Amino acid sequence: VQLQASGGGLVQAGGSLRLSCAASGRTFSNYVMGWFRQAPGTEREFVAAISWSGSSTYYPDSVKGRFTISRDNAKNTVSLRMNSLKPEDTAVYYCAAGGPSYTSSYYRTNYYKTPIYDYWGQGTQVTISS
Length: 130
Description:
Blueprint: E1 2-6, E2 9-12, E3 17-24, E4 32-38, E5 45-50, E6 57-58, E7 67-72, E8 77-82, E9 91-98, H1 104-110, E10 119-120, E11 124-129
Parallel strand pairs: 2-11
Antiparallel strand pairs: 1-3, 3-8, 4-5, 4-9, 5-6, 7-8, 9-10, 9-11
């Protein structure tokens, strides 16, 4: 699976951005999708995840209620809508795909872990000014 992320930019605190990730190369609906972010000097951090059909979504407390992940299996895309952005949201954001062979129970307990994602996009920079 090839992933191409886009939509990053510079916005003021309190603003919004929508990131998109276009997938190609494999059957998109066979993959769970995730968004992660990485700020300089930090480890890659889980931001959002969505199941194969989109029926289940997951977020850490740091973004819950502000970020929304969605997918369109007909268009092979996954999106991340980010509202009420804060300076601490500044990072490079990566989309990721994993797990045609995962069971639902395995995915529900591991969705936030980077090793379960086999494919990664190139990242898009998000900068929030205070």
